[in-house]
């Protein structure tokens, strides 16, 4: 609930004044804050799992460290050197934290399907979460989910094409890779160039 409230506030700050139009709705759906507002609403009534809150916690750590640095600068340059050291460690690991959050977003998809079969989530949870994952994949500001899908695909293909991989596993992996690739939303050319860099 706290993440939903925070995401709603951030979304309000990033958007122009409300207009009842298709363009405004499209602009809203492109914002990362909207994605995490949707994420929070999807899992509001789902049985709590640590993997579900992992991306939220990681993004909270990143946002709180940047705000904490602003507060410490207000207090003075030499104040709270221990806190500054912790903040610099988090800032140094920002890329890895974002990659881990993206990995968590991807792993939640099969987890949500499993939760449906265990009776701990509704049938709509994986369907709506798929839409969230499509939005994260095509995000303009955060390419980490798209990059993580690409890295996982490379790992799976390398494993499938290995000499010691049994034919059944190889065929299953290639089928899964093909299925997931067909589900991926098209990426604008500008984002594809950024991904290849």
UniProtKB/TrEMBL annotation:
Main location: membrane
GO BP terms: endoplasmic reticulum tubular network organization; membrane organization
A Pfam family it matches: TMEM33_Pom33
Keyword terms of this UniProt record: Membrane, Transmembrane, Transmembrane helix
Bilayer topology term: Multi-pass membrane protein
Transmembrane segments: 36-62, 106-130
Compartmental location: Membrane
UniProt GO cellular component terms: endoplasmic reticulum; membrane
Similarity comment: family membership: Belongs to the PER33/POM33 family.
Protein name: Uncharacterized protein
